Amino acid sequence: MKKIVIYSFVSVLSALVLLTGLIGFSHTPLGKPYLASSVQKLYRILGSAGQSCPLGYDQVLTIEQRELNRLHMAASAAQRPAAKSASLFDMQMGQSTRTEIEAWAKTHGGECKKLTSSYEIECVGPFMGSQTSTLWLEFDRENHVVTSRGVTKYNEVFLASKFFEMLQQDLKSQAKNNIKVTGESSPQKIEAGLLNQASVVADFKNLHATLRITNMGKDFAVTHEYLAF
């Protein structure tokens, strides 16, 4: 009986340690896109059971609330140089419309659907030659895309690195002094070990962008967050 109790205690303790680790990872910069995806699924389940999401992902922001948030961001970045443009998945932040993005997704073998969450639409497909790519998007009053967060997964590290470098070079062409690069994004470096990662953070007068490429073990993920204001 004592052995059974000890074994059960060790099993529960191990499970708690693993759960704590997973929760901690999901709140790191690397894990946040996966947290967002998981929470999206969670609030759908809770919604079907008549419950609300404890993290607030089922709360839909009005256009007025989103515009106010963007004004605050613009005010804090007023002294920085402006980005001339920001290309992402063949769309231009602050310019491409919802209709254009939905048509683009369909043309490239994907589809977009409306969400009842903090994001307006979700687009899923094999975008940019990926295994799979998921985008969560928000729009302004004129229906131009102003927020894009997403995860793009590749089976081959070379393709992931190529996509990451393309996005990085686009940001660097705007103003190199506003770019912070951490880690090395070469295929050799990323492939060398589990969770090897490189990141780029860019802050402009009218745009914030964060890019990451990560070795996830079974595949290679490029995550992004673009905020236009």
- Strand order, biggest sheet? 3-4-5-6-10-9-8-7
Structural class assignment? alpha+beta
Portion in beta strands: 25-35%
| SSE order, one letter for each helix or strand | HHHEEHEEEEHEHEEE
Q: What is the count of β-strands?
A: 10
Query: Can you give the mean pLDDT?
Result: 77
Shape by Cα distribution: globular
**Low-pLDDT regions:** 4-30, 38-49, 52-58
N- to C-terminal distance: 64 Å
The helix content is 25-40%
Number of helices: 6
The largest sheet, given as strand count, sense and whether it forms a barrel, is: 8 strands, antiparallel
Radius of gyration: 20 Å
Number of domains: 2
Short description:
With 229 residues, this protein is of the alpha+beta class. The protein has helices at residues 2-26, 32-48, 63-76, 98-107, 157-172, 187-191; strands at 87-88, 91-92, 111-114, 121-125, 132-139, 145-154, 179-182, 197-203, 207-215, 220-228. The chain folds into two domains: 1-57, no CATH class; 61-228, no CATH class.
